[in-house]
């Protein structure tokens, strides 16, 4: 369970996240929605401590992760895999090596420094690529892939990290509609098949409604909506999006939420 208590982040006079409280059970797929500048990225970045809160606490299974330092903080970050809008791959490295980077925390330091990947690590990385139908790209340089393929590589890298949480910050913002579906499907599979909690910042409300089992809406840093997608009515959307509400509201969910089916990690093909 992820518990966020009174989480606040100020940048000078500006409050990016303002006294947010949430309880997120394991295995949830939560969409964080709101206008540009609402505080979505700052909220996610605080969860894995890329940004530190000005006030408040974050607890994972009862442990205060806001207090972690040094090795414990590195371990926490390894358990919260990030997926970014711009994929954050090493373009000149091949796809398999990019995925193996997700294993760095699982291997002894001397091996990770020398990039000495074991046959088991390679098999795990390859199986993750197979899972997302991109194993045939394993030897290609990441920079030669399309945006949708690169994002699937980034999700495979997140998966081999064996995280408790995936924090996806606008993972589909630079993708076309077809790749948007492919990438959201990949996140949904990780959530359902492995029971990994997903927090996903999304601009597109129709996508958030289709894929997430819960929506958390921020406006000027404050939590103004927290509920299932079908509870987000026109009034709630207007509170979140103001005059843009009519543009972003699509009342028809396009993909019915699927029941979670949890299996342990098993990457080997
Ligand atoms: N490092 C920073 N320094 C100063 N202000 C910041 C910083 N990071 C974020 N902010 C401000 O905090 C507020 C929230 O920003 P944040 O990026 O979290 O919003 P967002 O909802 O993710 O927006 P977008 O959807 O455009 O990415 C904004 O007003 C932003 O300008």
From TrEMBL:
The record's listing under CDD domains reads: ABC_PhnC_transporter
Top-level taxon of the source organism: Bacteria
DNA repair as a keyword?
Answer: no
Q: Where is the ABC transporter domain?
A: 2-245
Alphabetical list of Pfam families matching this protein: ABC_tran
Annotated GO molecular function terms are: ATP binding
Keywords for the protein's UniProt record, in alphabetical order: ATP-binding, Cell membrane, Membrane, Nucleotide-binding, Translocase, Transport
This protein's name: Phosphonate ABC transporter ATP-binding protein
Supply the gene name. Answer: phnC
């Amino acid at each position: 369970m992820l518990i966020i208590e009174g989480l606040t982040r100020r940048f000078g006079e500006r409050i990016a996240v303002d006294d947010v409280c949430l309880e997120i059970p394991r295995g949830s797929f939560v969409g964080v929605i709101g206008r540009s500048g609402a505080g979505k990225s700052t909220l996610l970045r605080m969860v894995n401590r890329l940004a530190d809160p000005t006030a408040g606490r974050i607890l994972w299974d009862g442990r205060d992760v806001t207090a972690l330092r040094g090795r414990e903080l590195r371990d926490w970050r390894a358990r919260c895999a990030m997926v970014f809008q711009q994929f954050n791959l090493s373009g000149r490295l091949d796809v398999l090596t990019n995925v193996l980077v997700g294993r760095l925390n699982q291997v002894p330091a001397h091996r990770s420094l020398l990039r000495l990947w074991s046959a088991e690590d390679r098999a795990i990385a390859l199986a993750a690529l197979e899972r997302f139908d991109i194993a045939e790209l394993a030897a290609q340089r990441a920079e030669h892939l399309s945006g949708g393929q690169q994002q699937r590589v980034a999700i495979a890298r997140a998966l081999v990290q064996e995280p408790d949480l995936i924090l996806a910050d606008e993972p589909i913002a630079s993708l076309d509609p077809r790749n948007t579906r492919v990438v959201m499907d990949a996140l949904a599979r990780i959530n359902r098949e492995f029971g990994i909690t997903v927090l996903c910042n999304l601009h597109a409300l129709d996508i958030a409604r289709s894929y997430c089992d819960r929506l958390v809406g921020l406006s000027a840093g404050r939590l103004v909506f927290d509920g299932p997608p079908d509870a987000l009515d026109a009034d709630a959307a207007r509170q979140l999006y103001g005059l843009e509400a009519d543009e972003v509201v699509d009342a028809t969910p396009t993909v019915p939420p699927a029941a979670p089916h949890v299996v342990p990690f098993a990457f080997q093909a």
